[in-house]
Amino acid sequence: MATLVFSAVGTALGGPIGGAVGSLVGSQFDAALFGTPRGQRGRLRELDVTTSSYGQPLPRHFGRMRVAGQMIWATELSESSETLGGGKGAGSVTAYSYSASFAVALASRPILGIGRIWADGKLLRGVEGDLKTGGTLRLHTGHGDQPCDPLILAAEGEAQCPAHRDLAYVVFEDLDLSEFYNRIPALTFEVVADEAFDLADLLGEVIENVEAAVPLTGFRGFTCGGSLVEALDTIDQVFPLAVDAGREPLAITRERRQEQPIALPEAAIPTEDGDFGAATGFTRHRGGAEQRPLSLLRYFDCDRDYLPGIQHAAGQALPGAPGAIELPAALEATTARSLIEQARHRTDWRRERISWRTAELNPAVAPGTLVTFPRIGGRWRVLEWEWRDSGVEVTAERAVPTGADAPMQLPTDPGRINAPEDLPATPTLLAAFELPHDPTSDSAGRPRLFAALSSAGANWSGAALYADRGDGQLDPLGGSGRRRAVMGTASSALPPKSPLLFDRTSSLAVTLVDPRMNLVSAATRQLAEGANLALLGEELVQFARATPLGEGRWRLEGFLRGRGGTENAVAGHVAEEAFVLLDGTASALDPARLGAAAERKVLAMGRSDAEPVASPVHLSGLTLRPLPPVHPRAEILGDGTLRLGWTRRARGNWNWQDGIDAPLVEQAESYLLTYGPIENPLATWTLQVPRMDLPPDLLAALSALSPGDAFRVRQQGTYAVSTMLHLFPNPSFRKEIRT
Prior knowledge:
Oligomer: single chain
Structural class: mainly beta
Helix content: 10-25%
Number of helices: 10
Distance between the termini: 139 Å
Radius of gyration: 43 Å
Number of strands: 42
Strand content: 35-45%
C-alpha cells in the first residue's frame, strides 16, 4: 500500500484532510493536528457574550476578528454615593453610581492590538481608541515578556498574580456601569492579531517542520477554536489543499501542483474473477446527488461589524436540505459569494470517479497527483492507490478544468446593519444662570440657580458639576445627565427695543453648537404661556419665529424683551454672545453650596474635557431681587406741589389675568425714593405707598443743591433692592420748577 492513504479513521476524525494525515498516528504531527478527537467538524458560532467558564479553550485568532473572550478576573462592584442638596429649607438627595474592574482574555496567542469594543451592542470604544464611558482600559498583547497588570497585582499580591504570558487580555479599571443598568455588559472585541497571515501561520505556532505557505486570499481574519485538523478541513472546502506526508517535512499546498498531468498506461485486464473492470480493467461512474447539496456559506461579514453572514450559490435549488460550509473567517460579501460558487462547481465536477488498474508502477504517481487516462478526456486527481497481486489499483476523481472554478463576479448583497455611530467625544459647553422667582416653588427666599450644559456632538455623555464659592475650592454639585441643552452664539447684536412692546422689526442670527439641534416657532398664545424663553447675554427674551438657514444657523424674529425683570439689559448686547434656550434641560443647582460671593462660578468636567469648563452665574441675584416699578407719573398741583407716582410689580406674577393687583411676594411693601447722584444721593425717602408729594419750597431747595438732577425710585424687597426707575426727567423738572 502507498505511504499515504486516506484512511477511514482519519476521514472520520477530520474529513478528507483528516484522512490525509490519518496514517501519521504516532508521529509528532498527530497530537498537534488532531488534538482531542471529535465526532463533527467545527462550526461557525454566533458572536458569543463574554463568559467565565473554567476549562473552556481560548481560541487563536488571526488577522482581524470580533471575539467575546473569557473573563479571567474581576472585583466586586464598587459603589459610590453623593448627597446633593440639604441646604436651608431644602431636602437632600443621595445619588448612587457603580463601577467594576475586571480582566477579559481574548486570544491564546499574541496580538497586535484591539480596535472597537461593543458593550450590549453599543460602541464602548471607538476606532480612535476613545472609551465612550468613564474608566480606564489596559491591553496586554500576550507576548512572553509581558509584566503583571498593576491592578491585579495590587489586589492579589505577587504570589497569586500571574503575568498571563502568551495570553492576550484586557483589563478594565473602574468601568462606569451607569449606562448598562449597573451590571457588567456583554462585551465583544475587535482583535487585531496580524497585518496579514497564511496557512503557515496557522500551523507554524503549533507544529514544527511543516511547509504550508498557502495564501488565504480574501481572508481578513480567521478563528481557530478547535484542533488543527478541523481548521484545515474547513479551509479545504473553500481552498482545496493537497497533503504530502510521504517525505520530510510535511507539506500542505494548494491543489494543482504540477503543470502537466502524468499519462497512465493502458488498463490491465484482471485474470481473477470478482475484480473490478473484468473486461476493460477500469470502472467509471458518477455519484448521485448529495442528500444535502452544497449551496450555502456562513461567515463573519467585515462590512457588517463581523456579524454572521450567509451567501447562497446561484442556480436552481436542488432537492433536499441545503448543505452549508461553516467558515469561521472574516470575509467581504463578494469574497464569500465567490467561494461558495467555486465550492459548488468543484463538488459537481468531483462526483465523477474512475478506478483504474495498471501493471506499471510510476513512483511519481501519489495521492493528489494529476493524471490522464488513455482515450478518456479530462484530467483526474489521484485519491489513493494500492499495490495488489493483480496490479496497481488507482482511484481518481475528475479534476476541475482550468478556469472552471475561477472567481465569479456576481452581484452580491451583504445585507444592511444599523451600526452604532462612532461619534467622537466633544468638549462640554456650560452656562450658569439664575432664573426669576417661580411662585409654584417651595420657597420664595431661595435663588433659582441652573446650569445649562451642551456639546457639539451627540456622543457627549454628560459632565460632573462643581461649585467654586470664590476661594478656589471645588464642591461637588452632582451630574448633569446626558441631555444636551440647545445652545449657540448670536452672530449679530440684538438692537435695543422697549420691553413694554412686542418687537416686530428686529431679527437675530443664531448659530447652534450642533447643526442637528432645532428651534421652533411659537404662536402668540404660546408666548404668553412662556414658550421660546431664551437667555441672550444678560437678557431674557422670547421669540416668535425661527427660520432655519442651514448648517445650524437660524434667524429669530418677533421678540418679547426684558423678560423676568431683565429690561435693564436690552441695550447691552454684542455680537458672539451666548444664546441658551431655556426649555427645561438645565440642571438645578444647590444655592447653599454655590454661595453668594460675587466671584462664585460653576465648573463642569466631562469625559472629553482636558480641563474643567467654568462659567460665572449670569443674571446673578435675579430670583430674590424685586422688579423695578413701572409707569412713572409726575404732576404739578395748583399750589406748586410735585406729585410723583409709580406702579409696583411682584416677583413671579407675570400674568395679570383678573385686573386686580398681583399679590406682593415681599414681606412688606416699601420703596426707596432718592434725588441726586446715584452713588451719593442728596435726599432719600422710605415710603410704604407708591406715591409722594413734594412741596414747592423743598423742590426749590433740591434744585439749588443740584440743578438738573432727577428723582429715582427702587422697590425694597425682603432680600434685595430693585434696580432704579427714573421718575422725573431732568429737562422737564427744571422747566416745571421755573414755572
